[in-house]
Every structure is written in C-alpha cells, then in structure tokens.
Amino acid sequence: MKAANQSTLSTRLSTKSPKLVTLTALATACAMLLSAPVNAAEADTTATSVPSAIDSSKRVIRLARPNTAISSTAQPSTQVTPPNLQLGAATSNTQQNSPQQSAPQQSNVQQNPAPMRSTPPQMTASAVATPELTGTTRVYEPGPLTATGIDLRSGQLASIPTPQVQLSDVSFVPTVFIPQQTGLGTDKLDVSLLDDFIKDVSPNARHYPPNFPNRSQRHYTREKIKVLAEWIEPYAKSPNASYDVLLRAAKLNGMGRNLDLGSDYTVRGGQYVDRAIKLQPDSGEANFLYGLMLSEGGGFKEGQKYLDRAVALGYTEAEQSLAQSDLLTDRRDNALERLRRLEQKDPNNAVIRQQIKLVEEGKFYIWDIPAPNINVRPSA
C-alpha cells in the first residue's frame, strides 16, 4: 500500500517538472524583452553627442531651410534587435520537452510586445537614405536699395523684362528761393522754374514787338505766362509782398502785355514794378523795367527819367531802350550816336552791331532782329 502511494507521488512530480521548466523559460524571455528597449535607448543617448536628423522614435526631423534635403548619412547609432529573434533563442530549449505547449506560449509572447517599436532594419535604412524636401515656398525680399532706387535686375521680377531707359537733352535748373513777404522770418517761395522760364523767353518777349522763331513758340509762351502769372498773383497782391515777388510779377505781366494778353496785364505790371522801386529805389533792374514799360507804351518823357536812372546805376540795356525812344521821337542821330558809344564800351556785343545796322537802314525798331531759337514746351 505504502509502495503504491510513493509511486503515485513520483508520477505526479514527474508530470509537473516540464511545466516548471516552461514557466522558468518564459520568465527569462520576458525579462530580456523588457530590458532590450532600455538598453537600446541608453546606447543611443551615449553614442550620439549631437542632435541627429532622426530622433529616438525614428521620426524624420525636417529642416527649416527651404529647398534643403535631409542628410542621408544620419542613422541611429544602435539598432534594436527584433524581439522575435530573442524569443526564438529563449524557447529553443523548451521545445524538446513540451512542443505542444511551447508553441501557444511563444505565439502569445510575440503578440504582446507589438506596441513596442520593432521596425525591421531594412525599412529604417531606406527611410533615412531617401532625401526629403521641405517645400518650395519663396519669401519675397526687397531688392538692394541704391542711390537711384530699387534695382530690378536682382531677380525678384524674373518674368518681366528689365526696362531700358535712355536720357537725352538733360538740363539742370538752379534752385532759387525768395522771401514771400518783407521782414525777417517770412516763408520762402521756390521760383526755380519761373526764373528759368523768364530767362529763356525774355529776349523774345521783353520788348515790343515780340519776336519768335515760329507761331507755336509764341503760343506756348503766351499760355505759360498765363499759368505763371496766375500762380504768383496772390503773393504779389499782398500788401507786404517782397521786392523779389513784385519784380517777377512785373516781368510776367509786362511780357503778357507785349503778347496782347489784355489791358489787365499792363495795369498789373505797372503797379507791381512801381511798388518794387519804392522798396528798393537804387535797383537798376527795377528802374529799367519801369522805364521800358512806359517808353514802349508811348510815355517817352515819363519813362526817360527811369531809364536815365538805370543807366546811371550801370544797367546797359537801359541805354538801348533810350536809343529806341530817340528813334520813335524822330531823333535818329541821337539814337545812332548812343548805340555807337555803347558799342565802344562793349565791342563783343553782337546785338548792338545789328541794331546799328537797322538804324542806318532807316528802320524804327531796333529790337526787330532775328529771334533766338527757344524751346518752350506746352504746360502740363
């Protein structure tokens, strides 16, 4: 009876021993599986001292620079061994004892570590080796700023041809500022274009009758005088208008009178130049301008005193205007003598020689000479 019990116990122990061996093998395999990712992560952090293009989760880090490809040489320093290879080594000893039980256990163990990353080495290498562009977005940047503006040739407008510009007939106008009113601290007026126009057309329109190379230039001059006279009129009307403003307004209105723009130009021209002389009695130009307007308008005696005053102040053109008055008052000999005396003072003056010739030929207007060619452009 006792012998029978001992044989039964030994039989039970012999049947349980294969199960204990299987459980021990499984516990060892699980411990190895759990420790493998940790060891791999530690190896990655110790082997790489600088940031890599691929992080620990195998994600590609895209660079911020446009049109830049990721380097294909960046690879993780340590590859994690796939768990299925470790399981195969751990369970090889248990398959001899219980092949039917080890197969289900092995399949279960292989399914559990699925959430852990177990990418095959071939797939990781191909993903890293393929360059990947980050995009072709182009940020507009202004071209280089130069002294003449923005350079369009810098490539910002590739589809638009570069404009070609050619300059001709370049001229420079000096900048001129005059006080708006008398006294200190007054505002300034920019008369640069006005002075340039007066200088250009005065030889043609300052004396009567005016003389122009063609009808178009005469017309453009008339229209421009209208515009400029209207612009300066509010400043000249001011009771405190400066001498410079009054003198320029008188010149414009005097030329307008010679070009038959109306009696208003005659009246305004006389008023403005009279006020200018009161501000500066010793102005040779103002005295000449007033004497010119009076004498060429028929007031020979009234204009002569202003012309004599201008001659005394050294204004040469006033002497020519006195010769014109002598001609119109039947004093031809006096006019010829005056012009010849003036020629001796200024022998290089070609206009005086032409005027002497006109008087010798019996003409009455010494300013009836070929007009200089001017180029007055229409007003915008």
TrEMBL record:
Residues 68-84 have a biased composition (Polar residues). Gene3D superfamilies: Tetratricopeptide repeat domain. Residues 67-125 are annotated as: Disordered. Keywords: Signal. Transmembrane segments: none annotated. It comes from the Bacteria. It comes from Psychrobacter aquaticus CMS 56. SUPFAM superfamilies: TPR-like (SSF48452). This is Sel1 repeat family protein. The keyword rRNA processing does not apply. InterPro entries: TPR-like_helical_dom_sf. Residues 1-40 form the signal peptide.
